[in-house]
Structures are given as C-alpha cells and as structure tokens.
Design brief:
single chain; mainly beta; 1 helix; binds zinc ion
Length: about 80
Amino acid sequence: MVESSDACIAESRYACIMEDSKLVRCPYCREQVSLYVDPDTTGVLVEDCEVCCRPWHVEIERSGGKLRVRVNRAQ
Ligand SMILES: [Zn+2]
C-alpha cells in the first residue's frame, strides 16, 4: 500500500533561481529572439540568429544569480 503525501517536494532549486533563456534583440534584423543559455555558460560565445542566421557575439555575465546577456554583431 502506498500512502500519498502532500509533503512539499523540493524541486530543483535551480528552476526558480536560474533563468536559462533570455529575450534578446538581434543587432542585424532587430527581431526579438529567445536565447537559451546553458546554466554553466558564462563569457563570450558566438550564436547564429534564428531569424536571419547572422552571427552574434554574445556576452554572458552572471552576478548574484542574475543572468545578463549582451548581443553584438560578430565581426
Ligand atoms: Zn537576426
């Protein structure tokens, strides 16, 4: 026999702390695109715009659980 429990189940703490996707604006086509950022990723990376496929230079910064993303044109 299995007893069901209403006890609070501790879900992944990261779910509410970490934002893993950010709305960014493409520096080329000006479209707003939701960019997924891996929880372990910080620093600079290059992503292609989903809309116009041009390369972004993406800077990812984390401070105090806050995710900050800056997108510029990759040269
Ligand atoms: Zn674009």
